[in-house]
Amino acid sequence: MTQNVFPVPGSLQASAHVNAETYERLYRQSIDDPETFWREQAQILDWSQPFTQVKNTHYSPEDVTIQWFADGRLNASYNCLDRHAATRGNDAAVLWEGDAPGETKRITWSALHSEVSRLANALKKLGVKKGDFVSVYLPVVHQSIAAMLACARIGAIHSVVFSGFSSEALAGRIEDCRSRVLITADEGMRGGKYVPLKKNADAALEHLPFVEHVLVVRRTGRDVPMKAGRDRWYDEALAEVPDVCEPVDVTAEDPLFILYTSGSTGKPKGMLHTTGGYLVHAAASFKAMFDYHPGDIHFCTADVGWVTAHTYLIYGPLANGATIVLFEGVPTWPDASRWWQIIEQYKVNIFYTAPTAIRSLMREGEGPVRKHDLSSLKLMGSVGEPINPEAWLWYHEVVGGGRCPIVDTYWQTETGAVLLCPLPGAMALKPGSATKPFFGVRPALLGNDGKIVEGEGVGGLCFADSWPGQARTIHGDRERFLKTYFSTYPGFYFTGDGARRDADGYYWITGRLDDVINVSGHRLGTVEVEAALASHPSVAEAAVVGFPHDIKGQGIFAFVTLKEGVAESQDLQRDLIQIVRTRIGPIATPDRIEWAAQLPKNRSGKILRRILTRIAAGDFENHGDTSTVADPTVVADIVKRIQLQQ
Ligand code: PRX
């Protein structure tokens, strides 16, 4: 197989923060002497009390300990705001582009600082104290950043819930952390459509009487019901408090936020991130992997509800004083040139997005890209799922004009910040590979026999030691944390992904090994979707698997068994789709629902998803080892039905 390799551009070898020589040296140091390495990296932040210990971490089967910079004190909002507002308050911190073209806002460091301080005071007035949770259910507006930083300013812990999640999904996430305060908006705007956020929030709060206060941002200004005594307009609450609020010093190990993500069992996991390690890792990796230099304009397209936005739209860039473009809308509205128009308009230098979006824009051809001057771009990134070489090459040639390196960054909600990625001045790129470990990161591939795979090979992608941005636990469920990440391969953190290492030591992610699927870069537990389907009164049981999808990476394929006497119908299919949208949100909409008289199970009654995954991929012959199937006619029936439809 011939392989494309893209060497480091000559200009970058000289100008980049890290070149090939420094990468080798610093990587070695970061592994051999992590104390010295991370002590220096941590100077990217201002500490109100310097730490004396850098690292206290181990993954022994008896005890998992993850502590970084534990006795240091700092404030994340101070680091992301005050120190920039003090020196260049009139510069832009956030360039907001609304859903509709022409709706823009330029928010300076001073203005953001003042808004964050007011909101922090307003939260204090509502009784929010250090260690309290605050839920945030907002569209991509600057107030979402203000909400996060205001929490950080007073030591409260934010829990941002993606605004595309349904009221039920929101309710579950509020109930889990029992936040007494919710910050939301009247409505959101996406692709010219209104998203009824306040209405969803009201429905979510119906059974959550412990939520005492709701602050409501006026985004569209249209009429929404306000509940007396509970709901307040955000702008009014801010107007009556001062715009000065001393940042509270917290210890490095005090929580900064939780963020929910899907796992292989039903309930979403609230990954808990702490302040010092997370912010050091976010800030240092942002600077190195995007080769950020002061003055660069950074555009990350992720929604504020995902970890990508937490780390590389908000905390990492703002800690570095970077100006960010914050875009509320979608890449295809009013037409497929929207992102390219934004890049031209704001002279974006660094652009970070997901492969699924690249694939869907590729379908529109080169025309929408060529209409715009993208010469400001210096570097582009990819995140969230493997990028197929075809999409990589299109991104590189058509969007990046063949000049801009693509950093394919591998990480997870759990890892807080990047673990595998190229440093653009240091590594040749191979389309589809997340290349090499970031500093301080010790990848290992583990075989089915539990042994470490050396050299070239494939295995479960694990990490042998902690890194500063690592989640410390699952909120309220340390047992689950230990079981999920540390029990499969004792002594290692297991990501749930498979990977291959090639002869040059480059890593290639091969996809999830557990019951998690990656749909358009969004992570979903198949069990969550199954539970939503099974909640319909006509459904006896359901099995959900991923299948290869040209645009989404993976699509959702549901096999559904109906209760005795219930007739199969298209109406019922529509109802099932609706129930998934209501219980989780549109991102979990099944692409295909097939009826199955029965589901294949082993003798102890466990559904054999492995076989269904093959069938969903169109492989009707090769089901692997079927000796465990209790009743092989079940598989034959399903295959027959699907073949009949094709
Ligand atoms: O399967 C991997 C995939 O996304 C998962 C993490 O999803 P989430 O926690 O939602 O975070 C996404 C953004 C950081 C991983 O377990 N993934 C993420 N980045 C890549 C990737 N797969 C391949 N290449 C990547 N660059």
In total, the number of strands is 31
Radius of gyration, CA atoms, in whole angstroms: 24 Å
Could you tell me which ligands this complex binds, including any ions or cofactors?
adenosine-5'-monophosphate-propyl ester
Coarse structural class: alpha/beta
Distance between the termini: 33 Å
- Work out the strand percent: 15-25%
Number of helices: 20
- Mean of residue pLDDT? 96
Unreliable segments of 5+ consecutive residues: none
Shape: globular
Task: Provide structural commentary.
Its cofactor is Mg(2+). By secondary structure, the chain is an alpha/beta fold. Helices cover 32% and strands 24% of the residues. It contains 20 helices and 31 strands. Helix 11 links the parallel strand 16 (297-300) and strand 17 (323-327). The two termini are 33 Å apart. The mean pLDDT is 96. The structure holds adenosine-5'-monophosphate-propyl ester. Adenosine-5'-monophosphate-propyl ester (PRX) is lined by residues 261, 307-308, 383-386, 408-413, 434, 495-497, 509, 512, 518, 523. The site of adenosine-5'-monophosphate-propyl ester (PRX) has 21 residues, from helix 11, strand 20, strand 25 and strand 26.
